[in-house]
Amino acid sequence: MVKISLEKTPQRGMSDAGEDPLEETEEDGETEMEEEEDYNSYYREVESMPQKLKEDDLLVWRQPREEGEQEEEEEEGEEEGEEKDGVEEKWEKGEEGGKDWEEEERVEEEEEEQGEEGGGVGEKEKKGEEGEEEWEKEEGAEEKGEEEEEGGEGGKEEAVREKTEEEAAAAREEVAAGVQEETTVKPQEITKSKIGLEKLTLTDSQSIMSGTFLKTHSGDESKRASEHSETNELFRDLSSQRRFLDLEQISSEELQISSPDSQPSSKLGQKIHQMPQDESGQEGIDLEAEKGERIQDKRLSNLSEEKGKEFQPKTEIPEDSLVATSEDILFQKDDRANVYPLTLTWSFGWNSSLPVYYIRDENQRVLLYVCAHTAVIYNVFNNSQHHLQGHPNVISCLCISEDRRWIATADKGPNCLIIIWDSFTGIPVHTIFDSCPEGNGIGAIAITGDAKYLATISDAEIQKVCIWRWTLAVETPACTLDLPKEYGFQNYLTFNPTNNKELVSNSKTQAIYYLWCEERDILAHSAPHLTEKTFNKLVGKLTQSVFHLNLTQILSATMEGKLVVWDIYRPPSSASASLDFPHIKPCKLVHLQKEGITVLTTVDSYIVTGDIRGNIKFYDRTLSIVNWYSHFKLSSIRTLSFSKTPAAPPTEKSNYPPDCTLKGDLFIVRNLIIGTSDATVYHLTTDGTKLEKLFVEPKDAICAISCHPYQPLLAIGSLCGMIKVWDYEKKKYLFSRVFEKGLGIQSLTYNPEGVLLGAGFTEGTVYILDAMSLENQIPEPFKYSRTSVTHVSFSHDSQYMATADVRFTVSVYVVVVRNGHRVWEYLARLRSHRKSICSLLFGVHLDSNEPRLLSLGKDRLLIEYNLLKSSKDHLEVLDIHRTDQGNYPTCMVWYPPLTRELFLLICNSGYKVKLFNSTTKMCRKTLLGPVYGSSIEQVQILPVKSTLELQKRYMVFINRDKVGLQILPVDGNPHKTSAIICHPSGVAGMTVSYDGCYAFTAGGHDRSVVQWEINLSALEAAVSLGGEDLTPFYGLVAGGREGKFYRELEDYFYYSQLRSQGIDTMETRKVSEHICLSELPFVMRAVGFYPSEEKIEDMFNEIRFSEYVDTGKLIDKINLPDFFKVYLNHRPPFGNTMRGIQHSFDILGFTNSKGEKVIRREDFLKLLLTKGEHMTEEEMCDCFATLFGLNPEGWKSEPATSSIKGTVPDPALACSRSSLICRRLKRISLS
Fold this sequence. Notes:
By secondary structure, this protein is α+β, with helices and mostly antiparallel strands. Among the domains are: 351-483, YVTN repeat-like/Quinoprotein amine dehydrogenase (Methylamine Dehydrogenase, Chain H, 7 Propeller); 885-985, no CATH class; 1034-1063 and 1070-1130, Orthogonal Bundle (Recoverin, domain 1), CATH 1.10.238; 1139-1197 and 1208-1229, no CATH class. The chain contains 23 helices and 60 strands.
């Protein structure tokens, strides 16, 4: 099982509510619930409602109809027939509004019908006289209520109470009679979005959904009419957004007032009723035409008609949907089983070039920041993290909605993504794929205050601005705009907080104002050129821009401490039909402060700046200073994020500072999070001005990590000179040390006892530190190298320490006794390699307990040193072996003792894993390693917890951007490996915990370290599912077991048996399942693999000595299954490619007049005869004779297939010769 994944984005509730067919399920003999019952339930709920509903949430009472109009409606209802049930008659007789209200009432009933499908549980009443009698009671109660209302406010309240008592009694009678009532609710605006609300359940607290009215305490009818007009206008604007997620209905603020289940259905009914036909995506529903379709038979008929339409079916959201939740359940305990071999459990570090957001602040302090390709939601009080995983590349920008619920992240790189997350649950609710196919990713992103729109700017030479309706099921932007190069690279973007159609962005030299004309699908922009001549003053480089609090201006901050004020000129409404668009002009340059401004934002009634000196200043609308924080002595401010909750009003216990105005009022502002350029994050409590340091992380690349040999400690070293030690089980920072400027940590290693920590630095210095205090253990650090120390290693007895640097030099240090004390001294150094050293490894001699030292370089040399014979300034070399012919090695490690023979495991750039005898250095096995886009760069054997696990071992590896697991022994089975992306920009290092439970990877320039929990049972399950014996290997060839290739391989194998016995022999054939080893290279070449002579010798050794350790016998034959495995493990994983051949020509050839790489004929023949595994003249002539059709028999060592001269040669044979020459040519270029 391989998990190199993009997290699948749940697509929930994608269907348009207008397109959803009605799926109604009712029992025979049941009808809809009485509205009067809901009316009564509502008033019971109002009396117990703990929170006051907002005025915007209230429906406006409409003027009741005249009594004559009610009688006309009753007559219309009688003419329509007795088909209508009791609730239908109630709707006709009890009508108290005009025609519009009649339609609203019918829509509410249909909403109740649809709500029944979504899981709403209500009550139904039976048809017949019983329903009519109850309706007469309700009608009388309503008439009585109208009379009471005319009599005054007190009469209204009395009527309500009386009516409540009467209908409560009626309800009890119905319950006693065993009448089951249900309601259904028509599809609502909320269910049209990707994030649907939970299924509605009708309870007493939800009676507002039954279409009843909320009475306001104002008796001014004109005021009520104006409020109703404003409400209709609001719904008309909302309904114009096709299939939008109604985020306002489920915003965090409104969720505190009422649950999603208690949203007024009449409001939702208005939304559906007012939705334009062309935007709803289906034909408008004629409400009047559907009046007579309310009985069950006609509803089912209507259902079948709608299902016949071409619209997609409704996406139901299960009752336990996490997306629909209104509660913050992010940090609740997750008991789900771990199903992946590697699971991210913690991220150390953060990307300090991106902002930190303050997303929770009431009973918990929760932050949002970025760590490589993962967004991290960190709970400070609980010391817990939730990871938003899904990006294949490093996250380049992020933003968050005003209510702190919706998070948008984007990345840079191939197949870039934009993902929107729900911060309440951590679920990705929408993913935009290939958001920037022409460019390199997203450079800036912004989201509107209500989270309905998203804006992005691409990271490309020609930047593109896109507006996204992310709540729709679309993958294309609503509007785009290409920016000229002259505008510079736009790296900051924000919306107008009060107008979703206005944006501003800026580069270092240019600010751009945008206006989205949605009806025209146009993104107009204004970008006046700004120079020093504009104000006759130095302006400076722009950093960030915001809309002024007065909404008529834009402010742009500069690195000179100035603000550029832009006036927004909007055309008058009378000119709206013209082609004129708003534009901006620079009106003034305000020298606000001396320090360069790095952050510019607004909060409440203040304009806030952060500068390079760590000062945070607050200004009013007139840009007059109100207060500032300058005594904290912070480094340059990178980000400011204010709490969502407004500051508490001052009390006697409050300690707000006074502002700097003449009045000296208390300076009351929200708490905030501060991020600085030195990768430090602070929390500022404004009440009392308390600054708390939350965490400090490395501000530069992290290349060195090491785990303690027997404690849960992790040491992290950064190029900024910081070493931090963590308790990785408790996720607790323990201690750190920062070295002087210029000393960057490149490598770290604990000694086997866990007492010392060796550190190699970028300028060649080597420190030996105390593992628990990080204090120096030597008087002066060793400095015998002028370049970066890339490797540090200790011997098993901690008597020796060896280092390797960038200049291919190995240095050795030894412990000696001086004056009764053990001290470290320099022994010797040797430049033993021609290319970079990729591994430095200590071992133990088999016949003694003395340490042995080996180094492996990309020059393909494995060198062992003789430590016992080495002396001061002289490092003795014991032996040198070449490990590869064409590919270069990347790493090595001691293979665990799974067999009686001790091996060195060496990985190379050709995706191969080789096992070398630790004594003779003979290559004993060549196996196919993990193939995940790049070759293995570092490996470590997973430690075991007990002796019972010694025969079941595992290997952890990293390649360019992934970390993975491999089950040992390595045999080429692809199901024995699993990998996952850990650092898209490149992995710099890897280590494993002492107990084998965790692996850690360092991301280098992404300034992060990731902790991975290892689940071996998941990997074992993948292996068992992959099959046994040869089953996993069949999938590595085209067509598998029954494919053409495998059939041909079988034919060649058995043909080789005939060949070895003689093609023309008349003797009795000896049937066998084996072929002799001498036939092995011919069968390999027949199936398209042309191994070198060295590789053929490696194959022979692998087969001959496969049983030698156990039986003492040599093997001289091979069967078909073993041959198939040898072929798969030795062949190139991607075959011979034209790219590889072209690369050889690039190295060996020259450029002709046409600009092509070519090789002269005489040079080509000379190379074949003298370089690499050079050919003899006879072999070369035989190859070219076959290619030119002069030798149809092929190699003279092969038996003739035709003795007739002039026979056309076999094209496959000629192609084989050509491929052989190309392979030879490639090996020559590599050598």
